[in-house]
Amino acid sequence: MSSFNGDDFKGLRITQLDDDDEEQAPVEPINVDEFDDDDDDDEDDEEEPVILGFVESPKFPWSSLRQLFPNLAGGVPAWLDPVNLPSGKSILCDLCEEPLQFVLQLYAPLTEKESAFHRTLFLFMCPSMSCLLRDQHEQWKRAPEKPMRSVKVFRCQLPRVNPFYSSEAPKHDGTDQPLGPGAPLCTWCGTWKGDKVCGGCKTARYCSPKHQALHWHRAHKIECQQLRTVLETSDSVDNGVSLTQVQKAASKSLWKEFVLINEDESEYDTEMSETDEVAQPMVVSKREVDDQMKSVMKDFEGDADKNSWVNFQQRVDKAPEQVVR
């Protein structure tokens, strides 16, 4: 299983999302390079609290089930609407036209809004670095006629009363179940809807010819014959997934699964301020004895963009293990 190396993506620029539409959208793609920030004009004197996300391994096999509305990174998504999934070209990288891979999902409900009582954002990206770099180049263009993206975000939202989940909060004790099953997923990636069925065993499902070919060459060529033999000697084969189990993907190239844990950034302010009191005299002393460094720092701080980057780095250093904020 491949690992996710954050250093490879430091040069990429992915901007934020549009504000939510008033109308309910079960699964809606969002253009990641569009952002209408009306909040900047109405900033309050007090800064809004910032929530940080940290990854950790799931504590229980059921921690990432969709009926628990989890925050996840890597592995396979826990679709909020398990039936109406993205399909067609929306699940493909616009550059190489291969299926996108799941990165993370964030549960961000708007409880004061009936149509968005449940609300999850899903992030997908192409695992090809060449596509990501081309995507970055596309974003430098001003209003391209046909935006080409290798990173896509989908938003899904549901009212409190819906066909998939109880209106009561989950118990988080391993007994929670959804109200019914979801659409069959791709046997290879476990991510997208498995609309295509293997012509041999009639059991394995795929989201694309690409994933069917990958599975065939890696393992299914042998498995298919075994399943066909079972079908010939029995009336039926149960190929379903329990409502209290996460579907296992055959692909070994998915990123390792983690759950995202939220913490308030203010919890790190006290610890950081105590460290700063010790470190500050050392920094001042060094600047006083090194005129050349002093000049460089002056030029550096004069650049607004660089200064903003320094401020951001200093803030992130309060909790360097954060993966989302």
From TrEMBL:
<protein>
    <recommendedName>
        <fullName>MYND-type domain-containing protein</fullName>
    </recommendedName>
</protein>
<feature type="region of interest" description="Disordered">
    <location>
        <begin position="1"/>
        <end position="47"/>
    </location>
</feature>
<keyword id="KW-0862">Zinc</keyword>
<dbReference type="GO" id="GO:0008270">
    <property type="term" value="F:zinc ion binding"/>
</dbReference>
<keyword id="KW-0863">Zinc-finger</keyword>
<keyword id="KW-0479">Metal-binding</keyword>
<feature type="domain" description="MYND-type">
    <location>
        <begin position="186"/>
        <end position="224"/>
    </location>
</feature>
<feature type="compositionally biased region" description="Acidic residues">
    <location>
        <begin position="17"/>
        <end position="47"/>
    </location>
</feature>
<dbReference type="Pfam" id="PF01753">
    <property type="entry name" value="zf-MYND"/>
</dbReference>
<dbReference type="InterPro" id="IPR002893">
    <property type="entry name" value="Znf_MYND"/>
</dbReference>
